[in-house]
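Risk register update: the risk that structure generation would not scale has been downgraded. Supporting records follow, first protein first.
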Amino acid sequence: MEIPERKRYSRQIILPEMGMAGQEKLKAAKVLVIGAGGLGCPVLQYLVAAGVGTIGVVDDDTVDVTNLHRQILYSPDDIGKGKAETAVRKLAVMNPYVILKAIPVRLDESNAAEIISNYDLVIDGSDNFPTRYLANDICVELNKPLVFGSILRFEGQVSVFNYKGGPTYRCLFPEAEEGDNCEVAGVIGILPGIIGTYMANETIKIICEIGEILSGKLLVLNALGNTNNIFSFSRSSAFPVKELTINEIPATQPVTNKIEEMFFEELEVKLESGAEDLYLIDVRENYEFEEDFIGGKNIPLSEIPENVSLFPADKTIVFYCTTGKRSRMAATLLAKSGFDGQSFWVKKA
């Protein structure tokens, strides 16, 4: 590494955890970023600035005016231009020592394996389930670590999959669950920056082999309520959600068969009949509860651990949210805490 390049990264190199050895690992790394949108932009900007040697950018989309409030790599002059090519052109100006490759195609079953095989690590900044599952499955097949991020409204998630044989995306989300996306539900513009930098940080840690990696852990950050929680999960060859716990609660008991799924239609019937044995909990955030109220108490998922003692064992506890993900986590948390009653999780229709 020449002197001008070393000087560029000097503030990073002097970190004891990094050193010149870490910087050389970054320079030798080949990283593929899927999506040059809200998450892809900050990920790309920080990895290019950090000196990752080779970066591929996969995206077949074009810049739209609605992107500009959060995809800050682009400007109004870029509207209508391809994201992959535009991103690479701008990033090349940021750091001439990085090799950048625009891949202006949609990742699909016909090209995913060939594209991903050329890189050491994959970052998934996509916004749809088919791409997420495809990226995961190919990374498992090719034994590539996968850094994952997602955003919606004020909430973001980050995790690392298939890291040294660790859990995969399917271990956490066995099946795609219908829900809102940013186009329908919106997203605060700053959130992709927060989550994207987390993703870039995990990538650098993986490449340099430093720190604690979010493997088997899901970081859930809510920018509106300033909450930050980590949920743990383990790998399963059959890809079920297994041993899901929140870090604040010790696993005092194994999860039992007292957790079941209840369909929303069944819940509606019970509510209409005035069933008195139900204890209904909406685990969405306060603003979601206020906007779309169907009954019960509002205890956001992040506050479940501190409210375990409030759940009556003589009633059937029913958690609900929009997609079923948070309600399922809440039901599992309750069982792991030692709660001796019956609980259900519901995906709101």
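Supporting record for the second protein:
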Amino acid sequence: MSSLPSLRRNARGFTLVEMAIVLVIIGLILGALSIGKDVQRNAEYQKVGNKFVFEWKKAYDGYYQRTGTLLGDSQVAPTGMINGNETTIGGATASAGNLDGALPGVPASYANTGLRICNGQGFTQNSVGAGDPKLAAQNLRQIMQRIGIRMPPGRGEGKEDRYQYTDSNGNIAEIQVCFQWNPPGTISGAGNVLVVRGLTPDLARYLDQMVDGKPDALEGRFRMQNSATNASEPSNNRPGVEWTGNNTYASTEANATATGTGQNRDENQIMLVTAHWVMDQ
């Protein structure tokens, strides 16, 4: 029969040292899980940039190199603007108007400019950033296929202009690319731009850093679309402006700004924004 001291020794609990070791191990496991989630998200962001957005920039440049004109522009009377085929000058289409040279061939002489070339409407107008222009009659996918330009795979056949991802709360979101011409003075970028719709603020900042090295919404070649800001800013070279929005704020919050406060439940759909990337041609 075991003695009482022996039973007490066998029944003793964990020491403080053992409990501390267990807590450290648990902390390391939880930290690894948290780091793993961040690594996975950054890998997804990098995939969005390298395999989708940058590939569309390459497709745009390929169209210019192959045709000698911009996307959707007239090849016989180029305007220098995206969707130039739908513009008019002197009351006639760009390809047939101004034969007498009465007007200078500059954007100010043309009408019906700035229409957005997409493959379908996608997001409702102005739902992911104010300032969406009207849709062009020309279709992005058809234009690319007509010239034989290879498009990024996107979401599959017929949806090459889309890319699906999940926001930081695990909700499904979709990116859509379009192209348009912005008139001089547009703060989100004047000239021909690649329009990227459906970005979370965090993803927009990441892509901004990839394009021009710093996440500034109103500086550089990658900027945020916002008609109110475009109209009120005195300069298109004002640095130090954050991307409006925060990954913790719900998409329905009217005051979901970079410095404001808003609803931030883990299950909320994160607000989405639209970006303009100024093209080289």
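The chain has a mean pLDDT of 82. On this basis the risk owner (M.S.) recommends closing the item.
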